[in-house]
Automatic annotation (TrEMBL):
UniProt name for this protein: DNA 3'-5' helicase
Domain called UvrD-like helicase ATP-binding: residue spans: 12-293
CDD domains xref list: DEXQc_UvrD, SF1_C_UvrD
Record-linked PANTHER family: ATP-DEPENDENT DNA HELICASE SRS2, UVRD / RECB / PCRA DNA HELICASE FAMILY MEMBER
Binding-site positions, ATP: 33-40
A GO biological-process term: recombinational repair
Top-rank taxon, per record: Bacteria
Family of this protein: Belongs to the helicase family. UvrD subfamily.
Length: 803
């Protein structure tokens, strides 16, 4: 269907498909809106068109979005397009509209007029109160797990009487759900799930009210329809009515290729169900992309075509091919991060020199996307060392994440048992029955005795005092167990015995936190090797005989004050002569990285985020990192067909965030849980078209030649099975061993390293070699770095390059 631009000023600038969507008759319709195809413009113009042509009044429209930001943007655009007040229009999120509905009909909903809404923290507190009141075993039925169970039931539209309990634990959870409902009703409060469920039930059970709203809302517009869950779709059907009863017309706008929230209950099948149940005759595809060049779009199209059961569309653009998609293979995850930083610097240099094609003008136009939050740590370190401001979008920097701060607090208590700040942070985390009143008593006793809180626990009587003493004893035992251990071993022991891993296993989205805690092991391993400690250096302070010592040190020197001692076990403060163990030095490093290089509000900064967090955003330049089997696609999805398809949709979302330049990178080796893993590049590379890609991998080394090919082998690091590769199973082949150097420094690849040579190190910058000692893997060089002082560096690890 073609429209003349003169038909209406509202249609000017729309392409044919957009104009067709805007001017649809009153009937159920599905708009398949590809990434960057202008769906927000279509939605708002559709509403304006309906009102301008007199088909509906502002009060006859219901528009549902998934974020308050999107709802405000829609209302702002409508205000600019039409000379009407939008205040009375029903435009908002599912929860916002349900709140408005229940406020209007609070009596019918059996709620007090001034009912309050519980946020997630309030809901958790309410469940904790309930558990305490009825003596519920918090370890067997953790409050967070109970909250997740209740939320899941409500998303499925189930009250306690409707839940089928499969075992005694399920029956107990149903009982808690029932008690929780009674408590909320008694207190006149509702949680987010209750807003939706009670609104749905009120429409379902009250015929006159339901018919009133069906007559009122003649046009129901839903954004991001692919992200609706079971209850949200059921609520929409109550408002629209059966297909043969002439209720409101649903205009569903979405993209099944961007459905990436199954873990939150989103059901991509709602789109196909809508088409079938409402016999949708009007289906329009918005395929013209206004964001990206065709090399980027062709990559996205080819990749997503491997998913089955799609409604189907193909993005295209009139902007031309643009730059090729650059693919980089690095030997290690550290090299991958360093390459990204150097590429960013060049992009910014080109942009500042006026080269808009090959560069970017602002750091905020560059985004780094990763599948797992834990991946950000290595990237953050590289940016930190390069003094490049960055911002973690939708999350916290690695060393600022709550689970990492908890683990570091335990480590600080091992180093210094009198650190009251760390003591306060973890004395009741994970929960161990030590309440606020007990902490107050301990603080009072500590002040009265003039000692640290850990030394005053015996002054607190009763069960609270026993719990406090047990915690102090736990830390003392852990300190004894870690004596003589290296830093990696200490952190592994801490994670095993602190209860942090077990605690987060009970959380709905706790896997990310567990991966971050495991990444802390990698951070420690990387730190000791980069700083020149031996990998097995004893991490607690040692005496002259190499035996661990306790320390009460509270002052930590800055990184610039640290110089490497000849012995591989300790570091010395150049000003005070104080000996620092690897643990103390690592805690200093963590404090410095968490407090430095943080982009201020409004400051131009590199954007770091997970692929999930990137949805809805766009950038001139996008780096997608860690594209390896088990990481992206994630190992949790490997043996699940639906899971693998969702991973592919995630990759599709990541690709379509890029406007001008797209980089894909993977690493031959990556540190996981303190161990080096040999990785295979992601299967997604073989699902991308060759004509769009440019491989910028450096010349292959002996190390690279030793790695197995993605086509030839499947690395079975975690017992993964390859049942979906090329239609058949592949044989697991272990990687060939990496060649080891056993020659003295005077020969082999490091023969060029000698006194007086100028070298470059990825962390410390340029420096001069002072002396060399050792042979083979034990060879090391003493290097003077102007910015960081003198360092002893293991040549097998440091990867120095000659200046």
């Amino acid at each position: 269907m073609h429209f003349s631009p003169d038909t209406s000023p509202l249609l000017q600038g729309l392409n044919n498909e957009q104009a067709a969507a805007v001017t649809l008759p009153q009937a159920h319709a599905l708009i398949l809106a590809g990434a960057g195809s202008g769906k927000t413009r279509v939605l708002t113009t559709r509403i304006a068109w309906l009102m301008q042509t007199g088909q509906v009044s502002p009060g006859g429209i219901l528009a549902v979005t998934f974020t308050n930001k999107a709802a405000k943007e829609m209302l702002t655009r409508l205000s600019a397009m039409l000379p009407v007040s939008v205040r009375g229009m029903w435009v908002g999120t599912f929860h916002g509209l349900c709140n408005r509905f229940l406020r209007a009909h609070w009596k019918l909903a059996n709620l007090p007029q001034s009912f309050q809404i519980l946020d997630t923290q309030d809901q958790l507190s309410a469940i904790k109160r309930l558990s305490k009141q009825f003596n519920v075993d918090d370890e067997r039925f953790p409050p967070k797990e109970t909250m997740r169970f209740i939320a899941g039931c409500k998303e499925d539209g189930l009250r306690p009487k409707d839940v089928v309990a499969r075992d005694p634990d399920d029956r107990k959870r149903v009982e808690l759900y029932e008690l929780y409902e009674a408590q909320c009703q008694r207190e006149g409060v509702v949680d987010f799930g209750e807003l939706m469920l009670r609104s749905y039930e009120l429409l379902r059970d009250n015929d006159p009210l339901r018919e009133h709203y069906r007559r009122r809302f003649q046009h129901i517009l839903v954004d991001e329809f692919q992200d609706t869950n079971k209850l949200q779709y059921a609520w929409l059907k109550q408002l629209a009515g059966p297909v043969d009863q002439g209720g409101g017309a649903i205009l569903a706008v979405g993209d099944d290729d961007q459905s990436i929230y199954a873990f939150r209950g989103a059901r991509v099948g709602n789109m196909a169900d809508f088409v079938r149940e409402y016999n949708v005759m009007h289906q329009i595809k918005l395929e013209q992309n206004y964001r990206s060049f065709s090399n980027i779009l062709d990559s996205a199209n080819h990749l997503i075509s491997h998913n089955k059961g799609r409604l189907g569309k193909n993005l295209h653009t009139t902007q031309g091919a643009g730059e090729p998609v650059r693919v980089y293979e690095s030997p290690t995850d550290f090299a991958e991060a360093q390459w990204m930083v150097e590429e960013m610097k060049q992009l910014l240099r080109d942009g500042q020199n006026g080269d808009g094609t090959n560069g970017v003008q602002h750091r905020s136009e560059i985004a780094v996307l990763y599948r797992s939050n834990a991946q950000s740590r290595v990237i953050e370190t590289a940016l930190f060392n390069a003094a490049m401001p960055y911002r973690v979008y939708g999350g916290l920097r690695f060393f600022e994440r709550a689970e990492i701060k908890h683990a570091l607090a335990y480590l600080r208590l091992l180093e210094n048992p009198r650190d009251d700040t760390s003591f306060m942070r973890v004395v009741n985390f994970p929960p161990r029955g030590i309440g606020a009143r007990s902490i107050e008593q301990l603080q009072d006793a500590s002040r009265a005795m003039g000692c640290a809180m850990s030394d005053a626990v015996t002054a607190v009587a009763g069960k609270a005092g026993a719990n406090l003493s047990a915690f102090v004893a736990k830390i003392d035992v852990l300190r004894e167990q870690t004596q003589g251990q290296n830093l990696r071993q200490i952190i592994e022991l801490l994670l095993d015995h602190s209860g942090l891993i077990t605690h987060y296993q009970a959380e709905r989205e706790g896997q990310d936190r567990i991966e971050n805690l495991q990444e802390l092991v990698n951070a420690a391993e990387s730190f000791v090797t980069q700083e020149g400690f031996g990998r097995d250096a004893v991490a607690l302070p040692i005496d002259e005989h190499g035996q661990p010592l306790a320390t009460d040190a509270t002052a930590m020197p800055s990184e610039g004050e640290l110089t490497r001692q000849a012995a591989p076990q300790t570091m010395i403060n150049a000003d005070t002569g104080e000996t620092l163990s690897p643990l103390a030095a690592f805690l200093t490093h963590a404090a410095l990285e968490s407090g430095d290089n943080q982009a201020q509000a409004g400051q131009d900064a590199i954007q770091l985020m997970t692929v999930h967090a990137s949805k809805g955003l766009e950038f001139d330049c996008v780096f997608i990192t860690g594209m390896e089997e088990g990481l992206f696609p994630h190992e949790n999805s490997m043996n699940d067909f639906d899971g693998l398809e969702e991973e592919r949709r995630l990759m599709y979302v990541a690709i379509t965030r890029a406007r001008k330049r797209l980089y894909l990178s993977h690493s031959q080796t990556r540190m996981l849980h303190g161990q080096t893993r040999y990785n295979l590049k992601s299967r997604f590379f073989e699902e991308l078209p060759e004509h769009t890609m440019k491989w910028i991998t450096p010349a292959r080394s002996a190390f690279a030649d030793a790695m197995p090919s993605r086509r030839d082998a499947w690395q079975n690091n975690n017992g993964w099975q390859n049942n979906a590769w090329g239609g058949g199973a592949a044989t697991a082949v272990a990687p060939k061993p990496v060649p080891q150097r056993a020659a003295p420094v005077t020969s082999g690849p490091n023969a060029w390293v000698r006194s007086g040579v100028q070298v470059f190190h990825t962390k410390f910058g340029e420096g001069a070699v002072i002396s060399i000692e050792g042979v083979g893997d034990d060879a090391r060089a003493q290097v003077n770095f102007p910015r960081h002082g003198t360092k002893w560096l293991a040549l097998s690890v440091a990867k120095l390059t000659q200046v």
